[in-house]
Every structure is written in structure tokens, then in C-alpha cells.
Design brief:
Shape: globular
Number of strands: 4
Order of helices and strands: HEEEHEH
Oligomer: single chain
Largest sheet: 2 strands, parallel
Distance between the termini: 15 Å
Radius of gyration: 16 Å
Structural class: alpha+beta
Length: about 100
């Protein structure tokens, strides 16, 4: 999640895209099992979206930070429908 404190409209989508590229590249260099290199390397899927969200701290005994809204659901779908070692970007994020 970006752009929660200051206005970063001109750069936040580009910075998230660059982070996604770096994350996929870094993951592909990590062995799944260092004792068994034959197991291969970590493969991740990335999806991102840009849009409004609502956030809040949930709970009092064990508080957790939660994000809610259609944008969160869209970003989750972008990731889950992406291919391994690929980045899927929504049209809304691409337009920024």
C-alpha cells in the first residue's frame, strides 16, 4: 500500500511496478531448499491495482491493521490470476 500519507500521484504506481520487478527477480534467486538445490528456486506471482481503500485497526486484545474495499479485492484477483514469475497490473494502475 502506498500513497497513504502524502500526495504521490505522479510516482507511486511506477515505484510499485519497479518494486514488483525487483521482487520477482530476487525471489527467482532464492533456493526453495538450500540442502537440495535440485528442488529449484522460488517462483512468485505479483498483481497490483490502484484505487480507494478503507483502513482501520481491528481488535483490542491482538490488534491488527486491516485494509478493505474493492481495490483490495481487485489487487488480490490480479495476483491470484497472474502467472508464475509474472506481474499483472490493472488498467487503473497502468493509466497512472
Amino acid at each position: 500500500v502506498t500513497n497513504l500519507e502524502d500526495n504521490q500521484n505522479e510516482t507511486h504506481a511506477k515505484r510499485i511496478a519497479m518494486f514488483a520487478i525487483d521482487a520477482v527477480e530476487a525471489a527467482s534467486k532464492v533456493l526453495i531448499d538450500e540442502d537440495d538445490p535440485e528442488a529449484g528456486y522460488v517462483h512468485i506471482r505479483v498483481g497490483f491495482h490502484s484505487g480507494p481503500v478503507v483502513s482501520n485497526v481491528i481488535g483490542s486484545l491482538n490488534p491488527r491493521y486491516g485494509l478493505f474495499g474493492d481495490s483490495v479485492n481487485t489487487a488480490s484477483r490480479m495476483e491470484s490470476l497472474s502467472l508464475s514469475d509474472r506481474i499483472q497490473c490493472s488498467e487503473a494502475a497502468a493509466k497512472i
